[in-house]
Specification:
With 64 residues, the chain is an all-alpha fold. It is built from four helices and no strands. It has one domain. The protein starts with 7 loop residues before the first helix and ends with a helix.
Length: 64
């Protein structure tokens, strides 16, 4: 039985933040494993990126 390409990163254990984010941006419904990974790892990073105060602090640090 052939495994669809979409599931290979999950089976191989190489699902990355980029993979999970791209699937959600493309409007493709996430399967259970992808949802768990997204909520555990990616969602926190995306929230941090969207935080204006963290952006301000990062800019200050880059100017040092």
């Amino acid at each position: 039985m052939s495994v669809p390409d979409r599931f290979l990163p999950i089976i191989e254990g190489t699902l990355s933040d980029r993979d999970a984010t791209q699937l959600s941006l493309d409007g493709i419904p996430l399967i259970k494993t992808e949802k768990e990974y997204y909520s555990r790892a990616v969602k926190k990073k995306v929230a941090a990126l969207a935080n204006a105060e963290l952006h301000r602090q990062a800019r200050m640090l880059l100017e040092l």
